[in-house]
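Review this fold:
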Amino acid sequence: MELEDFLQQYGYFALSVATFFEGEIAILLASSLIFRGLFEGPQTVFFAFLGSFVSDWLYYLIGRLNGKVFVERRAPLQKRMRPLLTFFEKNKIQILFSYRFLYGFRVVIPLLIGMSGINPRQYLFYSIVAGMIWASTVSMLGYVIGKVFNLSIETFQENFVMVMLGFAAFGLLLGFTVKRFADRRILSTEE
């Protein structure tokens, strides 16, 4: 099956599955092909949001239902979680609105939020708003990248590894920058 046939048949479903796990690359890929007509803007945003929303809620519920017990049984983990929880409590609103952009923390932050005691209704609001902001912003960025570089299915097929490495490098650079900032803030709460 050709990539174009696959995307026309399973594109939105594949996007939701990919964003369930770690979605920047998937949403950048899909949204960079919007101007070619393989994806539609609103559907791309919705299906990217959907996969990330389900993922966030799965980890939130795990953290809420079992996170504290799991951490309490592991002294080394408990010691590492204390500064994270303190950091979260001091920066709660900022984290709740921006956690979707924290590349590499997709599992940890919803678990932490679940463990923090934030009630499900409150988290529902933040997860919808943060997820829609994330899906819209990354989709717009992908669209611009696709348009500026004139990306097409042929570009992806001929340069698949390079395109994926480029998107991954962008995501890692963003994640590294945010992680350095967060590490500095966490260290300052320990002192």
In short: The chain is about 80% helix and 0% strand.
